[in-house]
Design brief:
The chain has five helices and no strands. With about 90 residues, the protein is mainly alpha-helical. The chain folds into two domains: about 40 residues, no CATH class; about 40 residues, no CATH class.
Length: about 90
């Protein structure tokens, strides 16, 4: 439940336009749509980041793709977090 509240909080901070209709969706659907939107938003942030070179972007996006598809060793959320944390901006 807390994870859903956190996701909706992030959604509200990043896109009020999408937050309102998503927050009105029934349970289950709300979590799915919010998760999908935030995943796509994160991917877009990587693609649009001017501080990352193209090989780094490709590597990060490939890891995300494999994780979402369940390819490889079952790329975990902690592994994804570690891969992304190397590129966090202060």
């Amino acid at each position: 439940m807390q994870l859903c509240k956190d996701a909706l909080g992030i959604l509200k901070e990043t896109s009020r336009t999408f937050y309102i209709p998503i927050s009105c969706l029934p349970g289950g659907l709300q979590e799915s749509v919010a998760s999908a939107y935030l995943c796509m938003r994160a991917i877009d942030e990587i693609e649009d980041n001017f501080d990352l070179d193209n090989p780094t972007k490709a590597s990060l996006l490939r890891k995300i793709s494999f994780g979402l598809q369940g390819i490889g060793n079952g790329f975990s959320a902690s592994e994804l977090s570690l891969a992304l944390s190397k590129h966090e901006q202060p």
